[in-house]
Amino acid sequence: MTVPVQGYCDSAFSQVREAFTQNFIDHGELGAACSVYIEGKKVVDLWGGFQDKNRSKPWQQDTLVGFYSVSKAIAALCTLQLVDQGLLALDKPIASVWPEFAANGKEQITLRQLLSHQAGLISFEKRLTNEDLFNWSPIVKALEEQAPWFEPGTQAVYHTNTYGHLIGEPLRRITGKSVGQYLQEHISQPLNEEVYFGLPDATLNRVADIVWHPSDQPPPASILDNPINETQQMVNLSYFNPPGFAGLGVMNGRGWRQAEVPSTNGHGTARGIAHVYQQLAGAGKVPGPQLLSQDLLQEATTKQSENFDCPVLGRPVCFGLGFQPTRDYRQFGPNAHSFGHFGSGGSAGFGDPDCQLGFGYVMNDITPRWQSPRNQALIDAVYGCL
After folding, report:
1. Is 148 helix (H, G, I), strand (E, B) or coil?
2. Can you say whether the dihedral through the CA atoms of 313, 297, 187, 279 is positive or negative?
3. Of the candidates 20, 22, 28, 75, the residue with the CA atom closest to the CA atom of residue 262
4. pLDDT number for residue 102
5. Residue 254 pLDDT more than 60?
6. Nearest Cα to Cα of residue 362 among 247, 277, 270, 271
7. Local structure of residue 125 (DSSP, 8 states)
8. Where are the alpha helices (DSSP H) in 229-372?
9. What pLDDT sits at residue 220?
10. Which of 57, 119, 183, 224 falls 20 to 30 Å from 15 in CA-CA distance?
């Protein structure tokens, strides 16, 4: 079957079109989009394949899709804007704006620790349902009640599914807006792009289905009830309490798509992600809004914490303030100052200030890897054209 690939690609970046097309042939791509901005100019905006497993609905220019943990950096950007405005402080206890958070040994946890995955709130022991997942308050209340799994500030452990609520609730307390509302008003609409936490009704007919290859069923109760040790319980609960926390089994439903779970359920286009990173990487040099001050952006994209054996991911991790600095074991291209975030299955967004580049890649065929041969082929092709 011929895979439809459409869109624009500057002739100087023809290698990217070739790599994008080849992903469907060599790497089992189902549906995807890739966009690249350089020095304020959109040089790649490609889409292709299909929105559904049955290959009956071609991917369109305005197709939206979930991009999993690419969401974390976008949620962090929203909260960091409040730091820029002097409404939040990185090193002040977050309980100063969220008093209920102080319970059970959390009174000294700072926003910096939340943003850099050092709070020790990877999961909670209180059992929740997927109905709780689709509503903001039950997750927040569970986080208020939960004690840290380790002393805050002593370790960097990936907060897979709690991250968005942890940094989103302070924003809500200060602005009176949800993270999704704030994102639309202060980032998506000013850029005239589609990046969402919580999809509006009018967009639901344009959302691609996610095809998840591992089992999409929650684990047997015994996995949660009879852990090997406390660390394993922390990890198990982080993925499966509530059962749909990582989107498993719910990611194609209306409830998940319209909920706000800013750790993992962002939806949008590759174009929107790339444009956000273009404005960050080219701050002050490209047309359009400056999303963060230069000083705060530099701090946010510099190492704040690192762990060479994260128990949640089973590999090394390095965190800035929401963004992940490029590392040899987790590269965003060859340049030293690149920063961004990958998502499950290989979705990616990153910026490279050394060449004022913004990159976005989304797809709907999810394999259990953050760095896939698909995104690597595209990133290599981009830099091969520079």
Report:
1. coil
2. negative
3. 75
4. 98
5. yes
6. 270
7. S
8. 230-240, 254-258, 270-281, 294-300
9. 60
10. 57
